[in-house]
Write a structure and sequence with these properties.
single chain, alpha/beta, 5-stranded parallel sheet, 14 helices, 41% helix, globular
Length: 414
């Protein structure tokens, strides 16, 4: 870890040195179109805004030759890549240096490439697991912290990015845990217990109606069926006037709910318990948590509106209101896709064989959510651990998009 801390220190010195020696520095940020890309770039925006430095920002899933040509011709003298650039360092160097100063911040496994003309910070190069220990958002938080910024929200954004990259698997580890315990104690409360998505911010009926993990066949997406499900398990959905919330259930009711949900989830009861990370002083409502914050940014990215997600991170209320609408649309798409999957398991569109499943989604599942849908299926209790899921769907241009997951594992193959 000390090797990475030294590399972080050296990078911070190089970054601030460029800002100091340039009379009117102009910065261009290029971030990945993902929750981690949005949150990591937001952290850098907070720092540059604090310093009074002009900057512009764009989002891209890949560093293309067209993008590099645009950056080469731009008026910005400092180019910063956040969560994108692995595998393209040589191209970035040849196109942008010596005309530009370039920094690349990444946490994905690097390829065998080394370029001296750019500053490249990746924890994987310093003995730190970039799949579990630290996201790009975490890197950016530690960088601006090293540079002296003590903004209360950067640690929150660091962990939002980590959640977005599935680095919280029951708990945070490595430098993510360091950030939580040392830098976020005034911003985040950790609550361990029965943990369903939305359980702290929505009534129980809404939580179950919109539940994707676990997906409850015959219940998810059907509000009347949710009420019947609760009644069958001796749980009142309302007190006569108001909807009841998860926290209002008695110990007996909670036990009934857990028992009813266990058959639907992989790893049984253990999968229903975990940590909820409640964000204090969330700017838009009284209570939120990292999982929902990350899901909101992910929805913005999936709907092609990363700028809206950035506005949420920077405290812009109209952006938050629009992001909620994007989340509803995105969630509805996921819900419809999973309902299609469950209703077509006995058809020729879904071929289930020992060890693998092939899903021909045709145009029924939008290609931009295909991987997300597979992730939900892989974490369900439908197939044995190690079962390979392969799905195909048409893109808007008529091409075929392929995505794959392995049941019981977080890793994906795209």
């Amino acid at each position: 870890m000390m090797e990475f801390i030294q590399a972080l220190h050296n990078t911070a010195e190089a970054f601030v040195s460029h800002l100091d020696v340039t009379p009117t520095p102009r910065v261009r940020i290029v971030a990945s179109a993902s929750a981690d890309g949005i949150s990591s770039s937001a952290i850098l925006c907070l720092y540059l805004r604090h310093c009074g430095v002009d900057f512009s920002l764009s989002f891209s899933s890949h560093v293309t030759d067209v993008l590099l040509q645009e950056l080469k011709e731009s008026h910005e003298d400092l180019i910063v890549f956040c969560d994108v650039g692995v595998g393209r360092l040589a191209a970035i160097s040849s196109q942008l240096t010596p005309h530009k100063t370039v920094f690349v911040f990444e946490h994905h496994l690097p390829r065998d490439e080394h370029v001296d003309s750019i500053t490249y910070l990746n924890p994987c190069l310093h003995g730190i697991d970039g799949t579990r220990d630290l996201s790009t958002s975490g890197i950016m938080h530690l960088l601006v912290y090293e540079l002296g910024l003590r903004h209360p929200h950067t640690a929150v954004l660091a962990l939002v990015g980590a959640v977005g990259d599935a680095q919280e698997r029951g708990s945070f580890v490595g430098l993510n845990r360091f950030i939580l315990e040392k830098h976020a104690t005034d911003s985040i409360d950790v609550v361990h217990g029965f943990n369903l998505f939305g359980g702290y911010t929505k009534p129980l009926v809404d939580v179950l109606e919109h539940s994707l993990s676990p997906f409850l066949p015959g219940i998810t997406g059907q509000r009347e069926a949710v009420v019947r499900f609760l009644q069958k398990n001796h749980i009142q959905s309302s007190d006569g006037k108001k909807q009841r919330w998860l926290k209002q259930l008695s110990p007996t009711e909670l036990q009934h709910l857990i028992t009813a949900l266990v058959p639907h989830v992989r790893r049984g009861r253990d999968a229903l318990f975990g940590n909820a990370y409640l964000v204090r002083d969330f700017p838009f409502r009284s209570e939120s948590n990292l999982q929902e914050y990350s899901a909101l940014l992910n929805a913005c990215a999936r709907r092609g509106e990363c700028g809206t997600g950035l506005g949420v991170c920077l405290g812009h209320h109209p952006s938050y209101q629009h992001a909620l609408q994007l989340f509803d649309v995105h969630h509805r798409s996921l819900l419809q896709a999973l309902m299609w999957f469950h209703s077509h398991r006995s058809t020729e569109n879904i071929r289930e064989k020992p060890g693998y499943v092939i899903i021909d989604a045709e145009g029924y599942i939008p290609d931009h959510i295909l991987g997300t849908v597979l992730s939900f299926i892989s974490r369900s209790n439908l197939y044995e651990d190690g079962t390979i899921l392969v799905a195909l769907a048409y893109t808007l241009t008529g091409d075929i998009h392929l995505s794959s997951r392995v049941c019981g594992h977080r890793s994906d193959i795209n």
